[in-house]
Amino acid sequence: MRFIKAFLWVLLCVMIFIFTFTASAMVKGLSVLGSGYDFSLAGTSDAEPLSADEYTRETLALSYIRQNRTVDTRDMLIYRPAGAEGDLPVILIPHYAAEENSSDFISYIRHGWAVACPKFENEYNGTLVSDDLVFNNAVLYTLRHMEGIDRQRIAIVGGSAGGYMSLMLNGLQMGTCAAIATAPIANAYFNCHEYFPACDEVNRASGLFDITMPIQLLVSKSFQPANEILGDDIARWEAVSPLSLAGAISNPVVMCHNTSDILVPVDQITHRYTYEHNDGTLPEGFDCHLPSGDPGILSKTFEEMANPDELTIYYSKFEDMVITGALPYADTLITININDDGAPTAKGSHANPSLRGGYDIFPYLEEMLGKTLAETEKLVPEKLLLLLERYQGKSLALPAVEGVDDTLYGSLAIYRQEVIDELTIWMENHSEAEMDTAVRAAIATLPEEDQAAYIQAWEEILR
């Protein structure tokens, strides 16, 4: 009997070891592939790889102020085509690192464009809505002041958590002439605070060797620190959710989302094409819908919060499950592409495993970078008010810090300089009189008791 107990104990330990090793290997393997654990959505390419002499790679140490008032230093990377001269257009890949073997990266360099991105570690998922948000804004700020970069031609391209960051950067800032957000988290409260924990509960009820949602097992835990950081602070959850900025988007943004997405449910983007039920691979009653009873605006979709006059939604269903052709986009500020690849499935991730191919994003990027900010940027009242709010140090998404280091991003001093820079760039392309009229009209929409502080901030900027 003692022998049998000892044998069973050893067998259990071996099983636990195998499971742990397999999960670890999956994490490592998916990360190496580039389209897995980091979910940058930048897969490998069949194109001829770039040779070492086709581009240069530079690492910059970038210090910024964390929201706990300490200083942190992270690296950003800047890639340039070899031998390039003058000020280059730049593609900013937020949150995740660039995949140098992806077809998109290869094409960026061969188009003669620079590429910028942060260095990525999995721990940054946990601060996506806090310090990582500040750092990625710091990367954009740094790009605008970097020699050899054309600040009139900056585009942002991100997927998953990087898609979230693409929307946040475009919503919080002026000065990017285009953005693409694939499978973006639009409602951080729903996705991180409610949905991921619900997925963890499903996996906890699974068998040891029959995990119901294996991709979620590898992903959701890394985002859980956001709940410890924000807790039940609804005002901050709203501020760091892209849906709250939908009406403030002032430059063209194209969003792409698949109906089967089990990591970032499409229902937070729009209710129009959400399947009522999953495909049967999930427990009965498992819900991928945005709860209607969530507090404040957190029960709303991105579509509901956007200006309907600046929103276009395209729906596509691919009978052969192959996405081809150029990325669809409209003349409105926001284009949402919904790809119907079936009901949510535990077998997938951001897409049904059977879905293949992808849109050609280059016609869109070429047109927008060709137009530059002079033609792509619009004066949006909500954006102007957001900038004046940040100038006053009142932003909940980017809290201003004083008394630490006024030369670092995250300080009130740098936020004020950033706002001045962005408004100045717009006035370089247009006129101060036009900006002044638009800003004062935006301020007039505020409650009368709030207007004086905004007018004061605007007049300081003009000086």
Overview of the molecule:
- With 463 residues, the chain is α/β, with parallel strands linked by helices.
- Mean pLDDT is 91; it is low at 12-38.
- The strands form two sheets. The protein has a nine-stranded mixed sheet with strand order 1-2-4-3-5-6-7-10-8. The chain has a two-stranded parallel sheet with strand order 9-11.
- α12 (381-391) packs antiparallel against α13 (412-429).
- 39% of the residues lie in helices and 16% in strands.
- It has three domains: 1-33; 55-374, Alpha/Beta hydrolase fold, catalytic domain (Rossmann fold); 379-462, no CATH class.
- It has 15 helices and eleven strands.
- The N and C termini lie far apart (87 Å).
- The chain is globular.
Q: What is the radius of gyration computed over CA atoms, rounded to a whole number of angstroms?
A: 23 Å
Structural class: alpha/beta
Strand order of the largest sheet: 1-2-4-3-5-6-7-10-8
Question: What string gives the helices and strands in order?
Answer: HEEEHEHEHEHHHHEHEEEEHHHHHH
Predict the CATH topology of the largest domain.
Answer: Rossmann fold
| Mean pLDDT score | 91
Number of domains: 3
Q: Count of helical segments?
A: 15
Q: What characterizes the major β-sheet?
A: 9 strands, mixed
CATH superfamily of the largest domain: Alpha/Beta hydrolase fold, catalytic domain
